[in-house]
Structures are given as C-alpha cells and as structure tokens.
Amino acid sequence: MRYRPEVTSMLLVGCPRCLIYVMLSKVEPKCPQCKSTVLLDFLDEETAKWAST
Ligand SMILES: [Zn+2]
Fold first, then answer.
1. What are the domain boundaries of the chain?
2. Distance CA 32, CA 44 (A)
3. Tens of pLDDT, residues 9-42
4. Does residue 41 contact residue 51 with C-beta atoms inside 8 Å?
5. CA of 21 to the centre of ligand 1 (A)
6. Distance from the CA of 2 to the center of ligand 1, in angstroms?
7. pTM for the structure as a whole
8. Which phi and psi (to 5°) does residue 33 adopt?
C-alpha cells in the first residue's frame, strides 16, 4: 500500500463565514482564512450514502 493518508483523506467543505469552498484534511478541518472549525460538509462519503438511499 503506497497511498498517503494525508493526501487521500481530503474533504470538500464550505465555510459559512467566508462563503468559499475549501479542500481540507479530515484530521484538522479548519478554514484557512478565518480559522473557523464550523464548516459545512459537502462531498463526504457518509453524507453521499445517506442522500442516495
Ligand atoms: Zn472561513
């Protein structure tokens, strides 16, 4: 297994304060601009599963 977890476990989230989308590591989801941890999940795998059922 050669994959690097820090690269593969990325998450696309939206910051409600900055109104931007950012790619973040799941380990430390934090807005790079305002440092807020209150973020909206977008392409989360679990969310996608729930939405499709
Ligand atoms: Zn922000």
1. 5-52
2. 19
3. 788 889 999 999 988 888 888 999 999 999 988 6
4. no
5. 9
6. 33
7. 0.58
8. -95, -55
Question: What pairs with residue 10 in β-bridges?
Answer: 25
Q: How far is the CA of 38 from the centre of ligand 1 (A)?
A: 8
Count CB-CB contacts under 10 A for residue 15: 21
Residue type, 23: M
How far does residue 8's CA lie from ligand 1's centre (Å)? 22
Compute φ and ψ for 28, nearest 5 degrees: -140, 75
Q: What is the 3-state secondary structure (H, E, C) of 12-45?
A: EEEECCCCEEEEEECCCCCCCCCCCCCCEECCCH
Task: Tell the residue number behind the tokens 């499709």, with chain if given.
Answer: 52
Helix (H) or strand (E) segment spanning residue 5: helix 5-8
